[in-house]
Structure formats: structure tokens, C-alpha cells
Specification:
With 338 residues, the chain is of the alpha/beta class. The chain is built from 10 helices and 15 strands. The strands form 2 sheets. Strands 14-13-12-11-7-10-9-8-15 form a 9-stranded mixed sheet. A 6-stranded parallel sheet has the order 3-2-1-4-5-6, with helices on both faces.
């Protein structure tokens, strides 16, 4: 039985992580930490014998753990993850893992030195619609890639727990607006499909609707992904809540519109599937089991450890370059090989 602790018991932890972990055998939570008491009742309902702490520092000092699951606002991730790794714990963390390349380098070194798994919650890979797309692409359904278009449309930012308001719209806590919140998801999925990394990035960040927030509500990102044109459009200023993804290849096209997935190929009758929409809900406990399986595999198998961290590292680099491109009025900036 692996013993874990939950750090940060807000909306995502209560509605996504706790129900997701409940379906996993041979794992239990013996403690949780949060300066806010509002999540205590939900946590104790799931784990009545577990202990509650007001800080991650106190929890890590007092508990003997196999792993830690970090669900705090992003600005706290780096310090808590580092403390958990230093305490000898395998660590799962909500996205974005970090807000800067310097933080990433520090955590990567720490995980390597302590020989511990460090995994970010890349749950969108495990959404049924995207898992189906991935399977079709690996089977060569559209042939060689030519162009990918990704759209995430929302009417406003998702809510977040906290007495001080929604941390998602506070750049000091979130690291940015819609680009950081939804761009991270798009990028690790695109890496899974396209492999390798982009050659260049250009982006424009703007506020189209929610001028009460000191962050962008719309991001347009264009990437030359090793010769494939990849365009990402993200907004909290839409009139609808929807996701659309179009993938063009040299032998066909995949179109995901909400929960409707259609495959058109040369010389064959079109195929279609009705799947749960990516826009249904915000916490996705049903996608979390795939995250847990990935995390536990990295714990058990040192040979695959770091696979998820490589995805997170690419997200950090692309997002930083996108922000810089926007500051330069959309200049096309080259990726530097690592």
C-alpha cells in the first residue's frame, strides 16, 4: 500500500483528484495540507483516518510518505515540489509544473539527485476524444502531417477556491492568463502527436473582453513544428464553450468539434464517432486514472522516469517564447535546441 499526501485541497483536488484516486487500489492518503479549512470535510469524508495540517512544511516534517500530490496555485508549485522531493517523495503536480525555466532546472536536478519520479498532471491526453485521435494518428489514419489547428473556446476563466478571489486571473499566482491555463494542455498533446519540438514560435496575447482582469483572455500562437504548421487559438472571450481540433494529412483529415469526431480519407467513406466533449466540466475525474497510471509507472520503472518531465519542459520553453514573441509584437522566434 503506497502512502500519499495531498497538498492543496481546492476545487481541482476535491472534484478531480480525490474521486480519481478513489478508484486506484493499493494507494491511500494518510494526510493533507491546506492553509484553508474549506477542503477538510471533503478530504476527511474520503479518508477519515488521515491527518490534516495547515502547511506543507509541517506535513512533510511529520509524515513518512511514498508520494505527494500537489494541487496548490501555480506560484507555490516549485517550492512545495522541491520540498517533497527533498523529503524523498515521488511527486505528482498540477499543471503548470513551474512558471520559469530556472524553477524547472532546479526541480529536474532535484528529482534526478533524489532518484524520484516527478510527474505533471497531463490529463487531457486521457480524455476519450483525444485518446481516440491519438490512436487514429498512430494507425496512420491521415498519413503524413501537414497542418494542425487547435481551438479552446471558453466564455470566462474557470473558478478557483480561495478567500482572496480567483487565482487564475492573478498573474502573480497563475503566471499568466489563458495562455498558461489552456496553452499547457494544447502543447503537451501536440507534442504527443507531432513528436520532437517546434522550430519556431510566434504569438499574440490580448484582452478582448475581460478587462477587469490584469491578464490576457485571448492567445493566438503559431508554431512551425518541424515543418508542420500548428496553430493554437485560446480564449476566455468566446460566446460558447467548445473545443475544435482539425488535423490535415497527406491522405486525409480529422475534425473534432465538441464531441463529434469525423475522419475523411482519400477513396474511403467518412467515419464518425460521438464522444464526450472536452468542454464538459472542468475537473475531469474520469481522465485522472490515466494520469495516476502514468505516475505509478514512473515510480515503478526508473527506465521510463522523466518521460512526462520532458513534456513539461517543452511546455515551459514554448510558453516563455510565446510570451516573448507577443512582447515583440508577434515576432517569429526560433526554438533553441536542448
Amino acid at each position: 500500500m503506497r502512502k500519499g499526501a495531498l497538498v492543496g485541497v481546492g476545487h481541482v483536488a476535491r472534484n478531480g483528484h480525490l474521486p480519481g484516486w478513489a478508484a486506484v487500489p493499493d494507494v491511500t492518503f494518510v494526510a493533507a495540507a491546506d492553509a484553508r479549512a474549506e477542503g477538510a470535510a471533503a478530504f476527511r469524508a474520503a479518508y477519515p483516518e488521515a491527518r490534516w495540517y495547515d502547511s506543507a512544511e509541517e506535513l512533510l516534517a511529520r509524515e513518512s510518505l511514498d508520494f505527494v500530490d500537489v494541487c496548490t496555485p501555480p506560484v507555490l508549485h516549485a517550492a512545495i515540489v522541491r520540498a517533497a522531493l527533498e523529503a524523498g517523495c515521488h511527486t505528482l503536480c498540477e499543471k503548470p509544473l513551474v512558471l520559469s525555466a530556472g524553477e524547472l532546472h532546479d526541480l529536474s536536478d532535484c528529482a534526478r539527485r533524489k532518484n524520484r519520479a516527478l510527474v505533471t498532471v497531463h490529463n487531457w491526453k486521457h480524455a476519450p476524444a483525444l485518446a481516440r485521435v491519438t490512436r487514429l494518428l498512430r494507425e496512420g489514419a491521415v498519413g503524413g502531417f501537414r497542418r494542425v489547428r487547435w481551438e479552446t473556446l471558453r466564455t470566462r476563466p474557470a473558478v478557483a477556491a480561495g478567500e482572496r478571489g480567483n487565482w487564475r486571473v492573478d498573474p502573480a499566482e497563475s503566471g499568466g492568463g489563458v495562455l498558461m491555463d489552456h496553452g499547457w494542455h494544447a502543447l503537451y498533446v501536440l507534442r504527443q502527436w507531432l513528436g520532437s519540438e517546434p522550430r519556431s514560435v510566434s504569438a499574440r496575447l490580448e484582452t478582448r473582453k475581460h478587462r477587469e482582469f490584469p491578464i490576457e483572455d485571448t492567445a493566438t500562437v503559431s508554431l512551425d513544428w518541424d515543418g508542420v504548421e500548428a496553430d493554437v487559438f485560446l480564449t476566455w472571450a468566446a460566446e460558447e464553450r467548445c473545443n475544435r481540433i482539425e488535423i490535415e494529412g497527406d491522405r486525409g483529415r480529422l475534425l473534432l468539434n465538441g464531441g463529434r469526431l469525423e475522419l475523411s480519407t482519400d477513396g474511403a467513406a467518412p467515419l464518425a464517432w460521438d464522444l464526450p466533449s472536452l468542454a464538459e466540466g472542468s475537473h475531469h475525474p474520469d481522465w485522472f486514472r490515466g494520469v495516476v497510471d502514468e505516475f505509478l509507472e514512473e515510480i515503478r520503472e526508473p527506465a521510463v522516469r522523466g518521460r512526462n518531465l520532458a513534456e513539461a519542459a517543452l511546455c515551459v520553453r514554448i510558453l516563455a517564447l510565446a510570451k516573448e514573441s507577443s512582447r515583440r509584437d508577434g515576432d517569429n522566434l526560433p526554438m533553441v535546441s536542448r
